[in-house]
Design a protein that fits this description.
By secondary structure, the protein is mostly beta strands. Helices cover 9% and strands 45% of the residues. The longest helix is centred in the first third of the chain and has 12 residues. The two termini are 34 Å apart.
Length: 284
Amino acid sequence: MARRSLLSLLLTFVVFTGCMPTAQVLREGVDCPSTVEGLLVSEVQWNRKVPALVVRDGRDEKVVYGEIVEQTDSTVVFDPGREGPFYDPEAKSYPLAEVVALVNEQREVVVGTVPDPYATVWFVELQVTPRQGGATQRLLLRPNMPFAYCLDPGTYIVEQVRFGDNQGNTDESVKLPVMAFNVQPETSTYIGSFELDVPPSDAEDVVAIPYRVAERKNPSIVAGIAGGAVGVGLLYLFRQARGAEGIRTLQVQDDSTFETQGSTRQRTHILQWAWPDDAEESAP
């Protein structure tokens, strides 16, 4: 998240999430005997044409579009595109010290980091309700940061998943598997490290979420099946979800090195999910 203002990103996401109460964030001085914790990994994406080169230009930054000719340990040779019908600039070598970001045709940032305002990064909101009864609360998962919320002990069901980015674009789930996690008394419960929009697959650790577009402030952000190659299972799911405009994925991983922030003993209970036919035997 280099060069990004996490405060501004969080403010954008809070506006998107509306009036539903947010679970108490774990912080110093808060009496919080039981917590739910984890991590969201969300790639910072280039949101302009490619290939592209961003170079320092005095105190500013300049974006050049064209072709990557060569990249070495110390330089980048970049051939700018035509500037009108009569002028085709020659390729130029740039020292890496002058390069802010280099983005290839696959939209991969191969040098540097994506500067604002050319970056798109997505958040996730989980709306959860205690199975034993109670108010729905939201857990805001900020990109590339651990999260920790105070929750009373019990089993929680994920009722809704929403996605929002730093440009005000929002998506919301239209069909979910039964998703649940347990919070034990006097325990800091780790529910997993979530990687957003991994290449779609039928892997056991990837949960697919059909969604509809709630708002688009940037029309270049299109709906669809995120991440690349599409598995047969995802295509079937997409066709079965009424009102769905696309599918987003969360890869749920158990990172044995993750350390919870709560003061109580750490326990791992990875988020569980199952589609309705299998829900009774799979729910925690």
